[in-house]
Specification:
By secondary structure, the chain is an alpha/beta fold. It has helices spanning 51-65, 84-96, 111-123, 137-143, 181-198, 200-214, 218-238, 253-262, 270-287, 293-305, 318-325, 355-368; strands at residues 11-15, 22-27, 45-50, 72-75, 104-109, 129-134, 148-153, 156-163, 168-172, 331-332, 335-336, 338-343, 346-350. 44% of the residues lie in helices and 18% in strands. Bound molecules: nicotinamide-adenine-dinucleotide (NAD) and glycine. The site of glycine (GLY) has 6 residues, from loops.
Length: 371
């Protein structure tokens, strides 16, 4: 268990999407705070969670919401649960327990539970309300906000899904106290991503505050979650369906997905692969003459300071990268699009990376192992 998180006053942000706008409440001890759940009083409720999260956090939520055991579904923890078979079982459960159309499905857990519950909510009786209660750092800064929901298919990750915005996000930093340290660090990769793509001051703040963040100092955790959610809320409000700017959130993911695919999703957590991808994206930006060499080094150093990997898997070749990246969702008109840095704190999407620069990057990182 990580260091206990002390309580500090909650904060609230808003995702502005017209009639589908919703608040993000960020606090320490929110799950046990009756006021945080006020919108859910008097609504028919169901809750989806996994067997690890349930062991730590279900009791206090059940107490607040006063829900009966049949209103709660506990699924196995892990990515394998994000599948169509589980979607069908959840739909069966909602139908068998007569969940009405004005009910609310509460997702208590990490990105797996949020994505699964959100998709079930999107299709049950053509769509019901759902609430995200993210319990991993990755889910608090990324997956719980923005309405991307879905499950995996045998042919690939997140290939089946829907955009369906939650009605409320409740991010309680206290829940991170029981998160395995490796999962916490993986979430920090996504936090670093936000500093790199949109806020150089926040990046510098991360350089100064990494040990306090890893120690789960409440003020620091809430500052980081608030900053990331605020950036994501702005991006989603401007580009809900990823026609443009939302793609910036994929910084580091093209390389990261290639690494995850190459290693069969077994060696790295998603955030760890993204961490290596962030390093590669920064170094490619340097090779293109955009990012100052000193800033590319700052990216490597801050990733390493979070205890995250920065080097590509041993034995992975440039050909492995290009083969896996060819299947990336960001391939458009046969050209691979990269999210790169014009400078620290400013990202862009480009399909114009000269092949010699990409080859130079991959040669350098695949052969050295210590870059
Ligand atoms: P996860 O939900 O699998 O959680 C990681 C592990 O931590 C699980 O074993 C879980 O049981 C456990 N856990 C969660 N909270 C805990 C807590 N407070 N204490 C103890 N254990 C806890 O994984 P994740 O990293 O949160 O999310 C990854 C998923 O999110 C992937 O499926 C990914 O595709 C998806 N994702 C979605 C979006 C989006 O925009 N929808 C964005 C990024 C990632
Ligand atoms: N995680 C990327 C997005 O929400 O668009």
């Amino acid at each position: 268990m990580n260091a206990p998180v002390r309580r500090v006053p909650p904060r609230q942000l808003q995702v502005e999407l017209g009639a589908r706008s919703y608040p993000i409440r960020i606090g320490s001890g929110l799950l046990a705070d009756a006021g945080a759940w006020r919108e859910l009083r008097d609504r028919p409720l169901r809750m989806l969670t996994d067997d690890r999260v349930a062991g730590h956090w279900l009791k206090s939520v059940v107490q607040q919401l006063d829900i009966a055991p049949e209103q709660v579904r506990i699924v196995p923890a892990g990515e394998a649960t994000k599948c169509m078979t589980e979607v069908e079982s959840c739909l069966d459960w909602l139908l068998e327990t007569r969940m009405p159309r004005d009910g609310v499905l509460v997702a208590l857990g990490g990105g797996v539970i949020g994505d699964l519950a959100g998709f079930v909510a999107a299709i049950y009786q053509r769509g019901i309300d759902f609430v995200q209660v993210p319990t991993t750092l990755l889910a608090q800064v990324d997956s719980s906000v923005g309405g991307k929901t879905g499950v995996n298919h045998a042919l690939g990750k997140n290939l089946i899904g829907a955009f369906h915005q939650p009605r409320l996000v409740l991010a309680d930093s206290e829940t991170l106290g029981t998160l395995p340290a490796r999962e916490l660090r993986a979430g920090i990769a996504e936090v670093i991503k936000y500093g790199m793509l949109g806020d150089a001051d926040f990046f510098a703040w991360l350089e100064d505050n990494m040990p306090r963040l890893l120690a789960l100092e409440p003020q620091r955790v809430m500052d980081a979650v608030e900053r990331c959610c605020s950036m994501k809320a702005q991006i989603v409000a401007a580009d809900e369906r990823e026609g443009g700017r939302r793609a910036l959130l994929n910084l580091g993911h093209t390389f990261g997905h290639a690494i995850e695919t190459h290693t069969g999703y077994a060696q790295y957590l998603h955030g760890e692969a993204v961490a290596i991808g962030l390093h590669l994206a920064a170094d490619l930006s340097r090779l293109l003459g955009w990012l100052a060499p000193a800033d590319a080094e700052r990216v490597r150093a801050v990733i390493a300071s979070a205890g995250l990997p920065t080097t590509v898997p041993e034995g992975m070749t440039p050909a492995d990268f290009t083969r896996h990246m060819a299947h990336d969702k960001k391939v458009a008109a046969g050209k691979l699009r990269f999210v790169l840095l014009r400078r620290l704190g400013e990202a862009l999407v480009t399909a114009d990376v000269p092949s010699d620069k990409l080859e130079a990057l991959l040669e350098r990182h695949c052969s050295a192992g210590t870059v």
